[in-house]
Amino acid sequence: MNTTNSQELKQFREFSSYSTSSKTNIPPASSQAKLDETVINVREAAWKFAALSIEKRIALLESMQQGIMKQLGGMIDAGCKAKNIELGTNLEAEEWAAGYWGAVRQLRLIRESLQSIYKSGNTPIGKVKRTIAGNLAVQVYPNNAIDGMLFKDVTVDVYMQPHITEKNIESDRASFYKKSHQGKVVFVLGAGNLPSISIMDVLTKMFNEGKVCILKMNPVNAYLGP
């Protein structure tokens, strides 16, 4: 390895080791009155969200996809500024790769799942087989040709509990979309290690479980709150 490559590799540090820039614009903490108002507004909207049709959920997801793509540049700039990363360097690329591609991908996968529910009433699954112990196992990865090429020869199976049957797998998955709900509110404590985790936690609660969310940013990346 030449000296230049060695020096570049040394620049790749854990997120926790980055020094926080004094120039970072961290928003002030929300007041108690603002928190109370937010809880009331979200609680009143919970039942409306739970009752949204599949078509409206798909439209919401498409809007969220467009929204996050518009915000990515600003979010990356904020992250680089907070960690004293120079724009245009390899470390900026790390911000893009580790920061938001997961959330963008999750939005696409959820949209595809909802489109499948709209068309067929259920989500698609991979191969179903039996383990040596006799339990059912479902292959969940890869679920498309692109994933298969990116991570060649990597597969992921979910092993079911002994009492789960193929009938259970068919009837119980995407269960939120197969019955009516009153709506619930959940409070998400944002993780601080990767900025996309908080977004992905909110998306999971919203579209897998049908709950509306209030997200508290971690102090480590509170600058991303706005």
Look at the structure and give the mean pLDDT: 86
Total helices: the number is 8
What is the overall silhouette?
globular
Helix content: 40-55%
Radius of gyration: 21 Å
**Spatial strand order of the main sheet:** 1-2-3
Strand content: 5-15%
H/E series: HHHHHEEHEHEHE
Q: Which structural class is indicated by helix and strand composition? A: mainly alpha
State the end-to-end CA separation.
42 Å
* Number of separate strands: 5
Low-confidence stretches: 4-22
Main β sheet profile? 3 strands, antiparallel
What is the quaternary state of this protein? single chain
Structure description:
It is built from eight helices and five strands, in the order αααααββαβαβαβ. With 226 residues, it is mostly helical. The strands form two sheets. A three-stranded antiparallel β-sheet has the order 1-2-3, with no helix packed on it. β4, α8 (195-208) and β5 form a beta-alpha-beta unit.
Chart the SSEs and their pairings.
Blueprint: H1 3-10, H2 32-50, H3 54-82, H4 90-99, H5 101-120, E1 128-130, E2 136-141, H6 145-150, E3 156-159, H7 166-172, E4 185-189, H8 195-208, E5 212-216
Parallel strand pairs: 4-5
Antiparallel strand pairs: 1-2, 2-3
List keywords for this structure.
3-stranded antiparallel beta sheet; two-stranded parallel sheet; 226 residues; mainly alpha
